[in-house]
Amino acid sequence: MSRDGFGSKLGIIAAAAGSAVGLGNIYRFPCELGNNGGGAFLLVYLLIVLCLGVPVMLSEFIIGRRAQKNPIGAFKMLRPRSGWPVIGYMGVLCAFIIMAFYSTVAGWTLEYIVKAIGNQFHGKELSVIEQEFADFHDMGWKNVLWQAVFIFLTGFVVFKGVADGIEKYAKILMPVLVAILVVLGLRAVTLPGAKEGLTFLFKPDFSKITGSVLISALGQAFFSLSMGMGVLITYGSYIQKDDNLTTTALSVTLSDTLIAVLAGVVIFPAAFSFGVQPTAGMGLVFNTLPMIFNQMAGGYFFCIIFFVLLAVAALTSTISLLEVIVAYFVEELRMSRRWATVIASLGCMAIGVFASLSLKSDTGFTIAGLSFFDSLDFISAKVLLPIGALFIVIFVGWVMGKKTFNEEITNGGKLKLSIKSVIFFIIRYLAPLAIAVIFITGFV
Ligand code: TRP
Question: Measured between alpha carbons, how far is 360 from 363 in angstroms, rounded to an integer?
């Protein structure tokens, strides 16, 4: 069977960046930062992205492009009759888990588009906007409905195939999202009292760095860069043999991180100005943003455009998640692409319903004190992704080895790359050690 490929170099960067940039940057990053001590979290996060982002991403690309297969098939092919495919199965499981709660939040973006068009935030006090957000959760069925719509949209794009599906959507809209974040940031930092928010975001209080801050930052870094579960192995398998893996990984990492920091510059000054607590979690984003739009010339239009772009950013991420499951079903279980997409989508929906409904205030649907929604988030970002990433770097550093690494990273000697030994050293020694240490300190 011939495999779909990305049409151009920009195509793969756009698609990988499309996967990386999403609710993780604009919704999850501020949540985690707000709950983990502000500037201290940002500092740890940036260090982790800087040291581990590119090496781990490269490792996934290398495995994928070498094997030309989905994550499970890739490990099977590169190390037949070994335990390594377990990492691939874990990735597929993780894709279901992330899809289940991610699609809940993605569904909200659709609700907020409708609200924005109906001008329903106009002139409202913060307390009213907060109450309406809580009421929306309590409706339950409406969340589930939007979630279903979102999963259906994802399935639709995935069904149409890689090259004309993912690539086309990602390329145009991401730069527009950046532009609108810059505009919002300018408004946010000029609000009264915004300075406190900037201090919270950028001034690290070193005494706040604890094991749980470290593991949260590690989890957020992997989550935001879509690493540790095979999305980038799958995308790597679509990268052409003459593409430069290193510059691709670098561009994706930089743009993703820039957008997360930009989101912080929008959210925190505004939250402090309006009196939203930095620990408000999802409310931090969904209540603060409408308040900013209320304070802006042309806020009505900006609000609509923003939530549309957020939905699109979420869509390019859910596409990448569903693609991992579908590629596995098609290539390993020999399903048709149509059935693979239908079954994968229904599976995500089946778990996702519980994630959405667990946020109603009266369900009591909790695991170890966390809502089902938060449990899924916790298990994926703080457990499965770090474990997946750990084994991925060990696989490239120790099992594939330096010769294969050099071949892939230089495209068989065609590219010069003076820092390739440094990157290999990080992949072989530093990354596994750092991930293991953070993981252990996070849970002890
Ligand atoms: N990175 C995406 C975001 O920030 C979410 C995502 C897509 C993801 N694919 C993933 C997270 C794979 C972890 C693993 O919104």
Answer: 6
* Interval between CA 365 and ligand 1 midpoint (Å): 25
pTM of the model: 0.95
Which residues of the chain register pLDDT less than 50? 1-2
User: CA-CA distances (angstroms) from residue 70 to 244, 370, 385?
Assistant: 20, 33, 17
Measure the CA–CA gap between 359 and 15, rounded to whole angstroms.
Answer: 31
> Which of 157, 227, 257, 317 for a ligand 1 pocket mutation test, highest count of atoms within 8 Å of Cβ?
317
Contacts of residue 86, Cβ cutoff 8 Å, sequence gap at least 6? none
HSE-CB at 152 with a 13 A cutoff on CA atoms is: 7
3 located within any domain: no
What does 12-62 look like in DSSP terms, one character per residue?
HHHHHHHHHSSHIIIIIHHHHHHHTTTHHHHHHHHHHIIIIIHHHHHHHHH
Total domains in the fold of the chain: 1
> Which of 70, 93, 97, 102 has most ligand 1 atoms within 8 Å of its beta carbon, as the pocket-test mutant?
102
Confidence (pLDDT) at 389: 98
Backbone angles phi and psi of 106, in degrees to 5: -60, -40
- The CATH number given to whatever domain includes residue 131 is 1.20.1740
pLDDT on residue 162: 55
Nearest residue to 69 via CA among 82, 88, 83, 54: 88
| Residues in the ligand 1 pocket, defined by CB under 6 Å | 19-20, 22-25, 98, 223-224, 226, 229, 231, 317, 320-321
According to DSSP H, which parts of 279-426 are helical?
A: 282-286, 288-294, 299-331, 337-357, 372-378, 385-394, 401-409, 420-425
CA-closest candidate to residue 39, choices 205, 154, 235, 261 = 205
Q: Return the percentage of the chain with pLDDT > 90, whole number.
A: 84
Domain assignment of residue 384, yes or no:
yes
Domain encompassing residue 77:
9-443
DSSP string, 238-271: TS-TTS-HHHHHHHHHHHHHHHHHHHHHHHHHHH
Instruction: Give Cβ neighbours of residue 151 (< 8 Å, ≥ 6 apart).
Output: 99, 103, 318, 345, 348, 349, 352
Take residue 444 and report the two structure tokens written for it.
């002890």
User: Distance, CA 223 to ligand 1 centroid (Å)?
Assistant: 5
Please give the pLDDT value at position 1.
37
Rounded distance from Cα 56 to ligand 1 centre (Å): 14
Residue 161 counted as domain residue: yes
Distance 298 CA to ligand 1 centre (A): 31
